[in-house]
Amino acid sequence: RILQIAGCSVATAATAQEGLEKFIANPTDLVVTDVNTGGPINGLQFAARIHKANPATVVYVVSGYIDDEQQKQLHQLQTDGAVRRFYWKPYKDMLGMIQQIKSDLSPQSL
To answer: Residue 89 has what pLDDT?
Structure first.
């Protein structure tokens, strides 16, 4: 909802698999996913597939909890450029997050 207030067009998906199918059909500039999604793939696998399909897409990952293995996977995805930012939930600075999104989506940063 906060992205809509900030003027972004938003599409949602119930699972990472559904999100991937929607993304393949209609690529977007930004994807925000939770690590712990329902369905056959988790948010980190989703982020990797988004990056493979379109490396220019900015991917943010959020979570209230990640285990040690997921932390390692997240770090590798950040190193590889597949994940631009990680945010812990609950969000503490929504205005800062919106400003970061605008910065990450500006033509100079893409």
So the answer is: 93
